Amino acid sequence: MPPRVALVDLDDTLIDYRAEEDHAVEALRGDVAGDLPAQVWRSLYRDAKQVQRSHQPLPGPATYRHRFEVFGDRLRDHHVVRHRIGAAELERRYWQARYAAVTPLDGAGELLGVLGRRYDDVVVCTVGLQARQQDRLRIAGLASLVTGLVSSEVAGVGKDDWPRFLGSRWDPGARYLAISDALRPDLFFAAEVGMTTAWIASSPAPRSEFAQIVHWQAPTPAALAVQWDGLEPEEIHT
Length: 238
Ligand SMILES: [Mg+2]
Hints:
This protein is of the alpha/beta class and 238 residues long. The chain is 50% helix and 12% strand.
């Protein structure tokens, strides 16, 4: 029997990234410039994040430092920081707040449990820094439910090239199931190399151009776990 491997995205598939990031940005405002309107603070942060991402589409060791250097510059341009706070300190406080706010999505553990009973490997596949993503998975209480984590930092590529992303875990003879909230690049390129796909999304059926690449859809990990609970792996892959 070919090996069966489940590939599961991390952010907004297993962990509520958006809520975590919003919480951290707001906590930083409280720390640094609580009197600045939240809207202004968020827009300066978003701007810094965009600048960083345009320079570094795949996160590397210097990613967050760069983001907070740009953010610090923006803050000083707006005279919002009375006491100069360095990028390293902003970055430290940001991660402290992120870690404090890590929250698994509804049914994330149940879904990994369902997969663990059916698949030889359950691998978290994520764009981000290996150590940070491992920390977040552990804090969320999910690390013991997977057999590994591959990040873009370690792979050196994104999920638009699954064979290279998976590296030694890529086996053309294996059966892969890819689960993500992102149609692009995750599921689009997964379908292209023959993987079965599951889309975590609460919107209605995907647009026709995506219909053929989405085999399963559910609004939450919990709902997906329920759909698959009584199924054999072969039924998931038909
Ligand atoms: Mg995601």
